[in-house]
Specification:
Length: 464
């Protein structure tokens, strides 16, 4: 009889093949997704690349290059919040990698979260001390925070690491300009042009620096060169327009701002500048239109709102102080010196001997006279002197004692101010006046300086 012994154990086959196959399948899928994402990204098919990057991450795969590239796609499409989330996730998985810190610093700079941006960039530098781009971005952040000295140091470090990165020279030049180191700034921008001779921005910045130095002719040439290189460079037209306003080329400036608007209709400052020019040219209707457009584009544009009020005031003054038909305003027509001294005496102004009075008129920027057409008599006079840059003075304001004395005073002052706006933009205007003139000056927003001389001042701002 056969006994019952212990049953024989069957050998089980180790079936790790399933896991191995799964891992292989997973790796294959991961590789395929990466290939498709990167290929479409390189070919500029951003939306397709975005889809594959998201699938890759949703499946729990981790690859630093995917996080960095996906964030850049999102940033390019304006999805800043999601880009930030992706790069923050990259830091969580790859904390020793500088790329995500650097990317976060740049995007946070663009949305003006400057403290956070600076912190991320400093971390990028800590992980990669020789990253010139990080010092460049740090300098831009510090510039936005008005820390110009620190920005200067950062840009210099960027240049030391990468001597041929033109952006560092441009930004260092701009920073030195803000610090008042104009000659150094000029040298840096010229170096940028040497590295990249076809960079319109460099010529524009050089023009701005040369203009501030006082080399206006070369400044104009430099900005025209920027326009030649890049005809659609709206900022170049705007900046040249500002220079032309400062030099009194108002019609030319007008055309430049109109060109800038065609290229960039969204810039409220160009409409504002056209409004200022139209006001200077006493074209109040168009001035109001342009300023209204500036405010529509930027409702918080306080300078435009202030200019709008000034235009309304100018229109009121023009109506209020219109010269009667039997009078005329003459410019730089020499009056009878005897009659002029008599007018001075009647207005309690010091009279002068003929030679001295002739010299005073000759040295004036201009003088205005109000003359009665039929009587050929002098009824009003004012002359203007200036240092051709910052200050203009209304002098020897004198009016014949008549019933419409205040109207004649107002017309003389209004006419003188309008000429100064056109020909001497940017000047502070001062006047020494009588008590009756004080009443009229209230309509011109003069600011009284109570020093016993009834000295009054108005500032006419040049183009911003």
């Amino acid at each position: 009889m056969q006994g019952f012994g212990a049953p024989k154990k069957r050998k089980r086959k180790k079936n790790n093949n399933i896991n191995d196959d799964f891992i292989k399948l997973e790796e294959a899928e991961k590789k395929l997704l990466l290939q498709k994402a990167f290929k479409n990204h390189q070919e500029g098919k951003i939306s397709v690349a975005e889809k594959y990057y998201q699938i890759f991450i949703d499946k729990g795969f981790k690859d630093q290059k995917v996080f960095i590239s996906y964030g850049k796609v999102l940033e390019q499409k304006g999805h800043f919040k999601k880009a930030i989330e992706i790069w923050e996730k990259s830091i969580k998985f790859f904390p020793e990698s500088y790329q995500a810190y650097y990317c976060l610093g740049n995007i946070l700079l663009d949305i003006d979260e400057l403290d956070k941006a600076e912190n991320y960039i400093l971390n990028a530098i800590k992980l990669f001390p020789n990253l010139s781009e990080a010092y460049y971005t740090l300098g831009r952040i510090q510039t936005k925070k008005d820390n110009f000295k620190e920005a200067e140091n950062s840009f210099r470090k960027a240049i030391k690491i990468e001597p041929f990165f033109v952006g560092s020279y441009i930004n260092l030049g701009n920073t030195l300009q803000k610090l008042g180191k104009l000659k150094q700034a000029e040298k840096l921008i010229r170096k940028a042009i040497e590295i990249k001779p076809d960079l319109a921005l460099a010529y524009l910045n050089l023009g701005n620096i040369l203009n501030e130095i006082g080399n206006t002719n070369e400044a104009e040439e430099s900005i025209l060169k920027a326009i030649e290189i890049q005809p659609d460079f709206a900022a170049a037209y705007s900046n040249l327009g500002i220079m032309f306003i400062e030099s009194g080329k108002l019609k030319e400036a007008q055309e430049l701002f109109k060109s800038a608007i065609k290229l960039d209709p969204s810039d409220s400052k160009n409409y504002f500048n056209l409004g200022k020019i139209s006001r200077i040219l006493e074209d109040y209707k168009n001035a109001e239109i342009y300023v209204r457009q500036a405010i529509e584009l930027n409702p918080n544009f306080e300078e435009a709102r202030l200019l709008s009020k000034e235009i309304i005031k100018s229109v009121d003054n023009l109506k209020q102080f219109t010269l009667p038909e039997d009078f005329e305003l003459l410019r730089n027509k020499m009056p009878s010196l005897k009659e002029l001294n008599k007018l001075f005496s009647d207005s309690n102004i010091e009279t002068h001997e003929t030679k001295k009075l002739c010299l005073a008129l000759k040295n004036s920027d201009f003088f205005l006279s109000i003359v009665h057409k039929s009587k050929k008599l002098l009824y009003g006079f004012i002359r203007v002197t200036s240092d051709k840059g910052f200050n203009a003075s209304l002098r020897d304001l004198s009016i014949k004692k008549v019933d419409n004395e205040k109207l004649l005073i107002g017309h003389l002052i209004n006419s003188a101010i309008n000429i100064i706006r056109r020909e001497l933009p940017g000047c502070n205007i001062s006047i020494v006046c009588s008590s009756i003139t004080l009443e009229v000056l209230k309509d011109f927003d003069f600011k009284i300086n109570h020093d016993g001389r009834k000295f009054m001042k108005i500032k006419l701002n040049s183009q911003n």
